[in-house]
Structure formats: structure tokens, C-alpha cells
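User:
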Amino acid sequence: MATTTAEGLVKFFVIDDRQVDDVPPSYNVAPTDPVPAVVRYDGQMVLTEFRWGLVPFWAKDRSIGARMINARSETVTVKKAFAESVEQRRCLLPADGFYEWEKVDDGTKRGRRLPWFVRRTDGNPMVYAGIWSSWRDRENDTRLLTCSVLTTSANEVLSPIHDRMPVVLEREQWETWLDPQADMGDVRELLAPAPDDAVERYRVSTRVNSVANNSPELLEPLAEDDQDLPASLVTTVDTDPAEDDAEQTSLF
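Assistant: Predicted structure:
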């Protein structure tokens, strides 16, 4: 979910070069949507735009990107699709927060999915550890710039509703993450859950379950009387840690 303006991002990141004129607000970013990104080029902080869902340079077509929106930090250095990007093309992906869905056992095979919104407690934008790739469309000889969000195990705030969360970087970690010459051991140390006191969550309407809905109302806390189940009756359905992170589909 991204609503911060381009001007706001320029000030927040102290941008040297701006390659996008505007960052239209979106309250329900979906895979393959454009998202703002920050990269370091020739020592300068550059604000640009990528398509969410990484398309590896060797891919035959761009459709693979819809399934490559997230990359598990534990395996990102050995997965063919991500290994080169995490070593050479790291980026910062800013967002106001993200939605996460709690799987609730209601007696059915599928269960229920109750959405939560997660944000920083200090009011600043979240800054995800991202990787990017440049893919050549051979049909029209154009380049498509795409990205993926790195994820890690959930902290204590998120673990009751999901076993994963995006890697959230603090300001003092940005330089190491963006430096392609940084020691990979130092880079891997950044891929940890956010401190428990850095993030908070609250229930929101199930209207966010449809990407057709995209308005500020999606961020409004759900009144206690409107919540589908009292918190004391909610039990999280166990998720397989080996599941692909693609199920975590709204990190902006």
C-alpha cells in the first residue's frame, strides 16, 4: 500500500535523482502493479519505478512475474530466479504498510481469511528490502524493470496471524543494502524480522480482499462490533513454512 507522494519520498530518502514525476496513491497494490523504488547509482540515491513481480533476465516471457512477488531470505542466494539480483541489484521499496490475512478455522476446508493492516509505530513509511531485474522483451526490443520483496520469519506481532513478514529495513541499514560491493555476510545479517516495537497491526474490512477496491476507506480500522469473530475466538490455521511466499500478496 503506497500513498506517499513523490515529493514526500524525495525528502524522506534525500533523493539526488528523480526518474518519476509522480507516485499515484494506491490503497490496494496488486502483483504486476507499478511501485516506487529507490536504487543507488553512481553514488546517488535515485527514485524510480518498478513493476511488482520479478521477471528474471532469462525468462521467456513476463508472465512469470506474477508468481515472483516475494523472495524468501533464507534461500534467495541460491534460487536461480533471485541469486544474481540479490548480489548485484538490491533496492529499497517504500510503502505506508501492508495487508496480511489471517487464516481462521471455521470448519470448512478453505477456512476464512481475515485481513489486517500492518504499519510502523513511528508513522514513517515502511522500507522493504527489495531486489530488481531488467528483462528484455525481444518482440519490441524494450526493457521491463521488475522487483520482488524479501521476506523473513514473522516477529511476535505478526506470528499470531502469519509465519512470514517482509524484511523491513531501518535507515542506518539502507547504505549496506544498496551497496553492490557490500560483503554478503553483512547483507544477510539485515534479513531479520523487524523489532516487535517497530510495527503494529489492526483489523480492516474484507473489502480489501478484492483488488477492484482501492480507496482510503480500506485503511480504516474495523469497529469491534463489525469484526467477524471476537479476538478470543480466533485460532490461526497452521501454514506450511515451505509454502511459496506468493500467498503474501499485498505488501504495499
